[in-house]
Amino acid sequence: MPWSLRLGSIGGTAILIHVTFLLFLIWLGVVYWRAGGPEAALQGTIFIVLLFLCVLLHELGHVFAARYYGVKTRDVTLWPFGGIASMEEMPERPGQELVVAIAGPAVNVAIAAALLLWLGPRLDPETLARIDDPAISLAAKVAGANIMLVLFNMIPAFPMDGGRVLRALLAMWMGNARATELAATIGQGFAILFGVLGILYNPMLIIIAAFIFLAASGEAAQAQLRAVAQGTLVSDAMITEFQSLGTSATVNDAADALIRTTQTEFPIVDGAGRLRGVLTRDAMIKALKERGPDTPVLEVMQADIPTVPARAKLDRAVRSLMEKRRPVVGVTDGEGRLVGLLTVENLGEMMMIKSARPDASAGPWGSARR
Ligand SMILES: [Zn+2]
Prior knowledge:
The chain has helices at about 20-70, 95-120, 140-155, 160-175, 175-200, 205-230, 235, 250-260, 280-290, 295-300, 315-325, 345-355, 365-370, and strands at about 5-10, 15-20, 75-80, 80-85, 265-270, 275-280, 305-310, 330, 340-345. It is an alpha/beta fold. Helix 1 crosses helix 2 (about 95-120) and helix 1 crosses helix 3 (about 140-155). The longest helix is centred in the N-terminal third of the chain and has 50 residues, at about 20-70. The structure holds zinc ion. Zinc ion (ZN) binds near residues 82, 104, 153 and 161.
């Protein structure tokens, strides 16, 4: 991930820290210095390090819960108000997803509870909300910060943990696809509510609202795609009627093909039927303008296109489409020859068809009820 620094690794999971987290630390440091001089700044730094530890422990809660179900985590990136653990895949079973999602906030609940117990009657509840005030004891501040972490993360909207908890709970009685849809709608409802509250009280909330709203739509689309892709083979979803270009084709030939067909991405296939690359419409137009119509397509195509076997599961193809951020994935037969293409658009069409069929969103519980 760009703009991240690597701190080390724990049990095969790299620990990264995002630049905005550092900026947040600097901001708090400055606030402390201006309020109480170097002494307060030192106190503040200690608090910041402890806060950082709590965020890290929160993420490790997710990581170890996921590992219990056999899901590995490549890295954990720390942001000012939480971390993002990039797991290889989320467990698909609602019960497992629930445990993994809740394991993070549970760590902060445990830390806050332990500190509150220790502070006992000395604690004035009002101080918990004032973490940028240097006059408050360190333990109370750390407890307050953990409570804030829990509240923020349990907002029932993607990509917050609360959104996943909500989705998992819904999925227990209505199936994955419908649960995702409903959870995303509820999340966007919360985002709108936050936006309104933000206009009335605190502009910070507007930024959070916009973030939740965008993330909820993206997450919902991806989760729905995964739900549809499960149990489907690549060969059931791929495009089989398409125009390809030979290795000796020019940008002019590609432009002709663009006009003749409805395709916007053209595979370049060599004599042996192997995929050499893909020329997109945008790259084609750019090449036409900057380098002329006689430019060989081999020079302007995108070469590193992932391929999947036609017999592979569709979720694998979806993952490489999402992760590698390529316009298409090539589909090959047993001999490595190109036999099909998968694009984001045709996966979208696949989703529309599946959800239009009456039994589309029936999970194990949904079908029993019909
Ligand atoms: Zn979390």
